[in-house]
């Protein structure tokens, strides 16, 4: 009899615990009614194709921020642990990782072949050492950043010019995947 009573008490405590979990998690959710009206998003007068359809709620249009940031050549990151959404007005790239065969070169751009997407860079390693990296291939998806003071904007490969001072991340395939242009 005592054993059966303990089982009943344990079952009741377990059910109570489960019901409180449902109550605590339910307070973070709100059921809303939204309106879909075949909303078109235009970026620089070109229609942006979205995977998720924008909707209207409380007289405001809601749309996926990641798609919008990518269309504006920006970057968005989500930190699930801290519930932080970070927006950047430019796309950035990871630093060079020597453990993956990458290297960082810094110097003056001496030559640009826009058709072959190659550059030559003149490096001053120290006061006595000068090195010229020739025919560095630029990756098609290269990220190029113009940095001035504390501001950064993205550029296209066509915006590079001879004489630019730049830092470049070169991957193990000897392709440039990221360029920072000093101004």
Automatic annotation (TrEMBL):
InterPro entries in UniProt: Cu_amine_oxidase-like_N, Mao_N_sf
Stretches assigned to the Copper amine oxidase-like N-terminal domain: 27-86
SUPFAM superfamilies, A to Z: Copper amine oxidase, domain N (SSF55383)
Pfam families registered for this protein in UniProt: Cu_amine_oxidN1
Top-rank lineage group of the source organism: Bacteria
Record protein name field: Copper amine oxidase N-terminal domain-containing protein
